[in-house]
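Try it yourself: sequence plus adenosine-5'-diphosphate-glucose, in.
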Amino acid sequence: MSRLIVVSNRVSVDKGRGATGAQGGLAVAMNGALRQHGGIWFGWSGEEVEHFTGQLTLARADGFTTATIDLEPQDVEEYYNGYANRTLWPLFHYRIDLAEYENEFGRGYERVNEQFANSLIPLVEADDLVWVQDYHFLPLGERLRAHGLTNRIGLFLHIPWPPTRLLVSLPFHERLVEAMLHYDVIGFQSVEWLESFLHYCRKELNAEVDEDSGTVRLGDRTATARAFPIGIDHKEFMALGETGTARRAQERVTGSARNRTVVIGVDRLDYSKGLPERIDALERLFATQDDMVNRLLYVQIAPPSREDVRSYQEIRATLEQKTGQFNGAHSDVDLVPIRYVNRGFGRAELFGFYRAAKIGLVTPIRDGMNLVAKEYVAAQDPEDPGVLILSRFAGAAEQLTDALLVNPLNHEEVTRALWTALHMPLEERKARWSALNAVVRDRDVIGWAEDFIATLRG
Ligand code: ADQ
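Structure, out:
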């Protein structure tokens, strides 16, 4: 059987105690997939060196090998903080107001993609399948082809694909997307992102597009684009739920909630996650309903991320201010309605927190998928499940149609959903949860990886 070579920006091996933590969904998903398959996981070490050498550091992980390289500070600034996180991330999350178009960022991005290609080539054997992850490496397939690699190469994009009208604001957008067509398979989280991609290829590249099969032809290249909705490692997560750590975490929240209904949010601190908007919705609920301070407790877990980028410093400041104001206005001497926690937790603890919460509030403004929504569902007590409130603008909304789906920008709608969730009868909660849980359980990350790999194998 052919080996799997996974490429992603960071290689973060799960030490088995939820160590992937705040590094996000990609790390959680890849550990699951590689443990199943074996092979090599290649990426940036997270370390900086004065002069780039391309020197590989190899290590053995649980069932696979990791290979990492160090980057120069200028590379990190231009490729990672710059093009990836200040250009592509905001643009692909529909925030062109935050996207920065600096030519140096683009040049740094191309340079690092070339360095990755150079370092990767010697590791690849004839039959290997190469599976590239995410927006850091949109042109990597083309770079690998330029070095003569003829293996099957696939790309999975974890974030949304923006509408054509937004994407054309990016300088050299045609070059970027044309380069992507050197992949054999291009995967998206949802049908919506897939359709936007195919639309772009037809309109802007004049490519020949077959909507039904997802085949895109341009010149002598043929790529297949498809939706592969990512899932969680359901079995592993449920096993974590059986641990004393999970039970104690649940008890900590339930015990200290003092009979209030717990609403939970768990997100990397990112402007795409809709965190200030959640507080606005709560503000409305507290303003229009009596005695909410005695009825509801909102726990928001939000570890900071990408702190070198200004928009992330700003969202953190905004959130701190809003939370402070909210608590100042609505607390009682012995009750605080929002607990805002700025750090990551192990995954067993998260399980316990989700289980303690009768409402899961997952309201990103845009999100490729959103795995927190799926984790929340998985962690519920089947006999007394909580209610998931989910943004229509998360990729997960295509699958999790039995959640209370809301427009996160419409405070009134979110407020109403909170009210509905607070009063939902047990029978309806059970019915909704069974439908949601079937999707989360049956479409897990193992199946996701197998599906992608099988498609890549062709
Ligand atoms: P993220 O934007 O990071 O991922 P998400 O899918 O919600 O978003 O994944 C977050 C993961 O990190 C979850 O597994 C969660 O448990 C974990 N996490 C979050 N906060 C945590 C905390 N405080 N402590 C510990 N763990 C925490 C990107 C895309 C998503 C896509 C994923 C996977 O933006 O849309 O779903 O990749 O493809």
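One thing you can check immediately is this: The chain has a mean pLDDT of 94.
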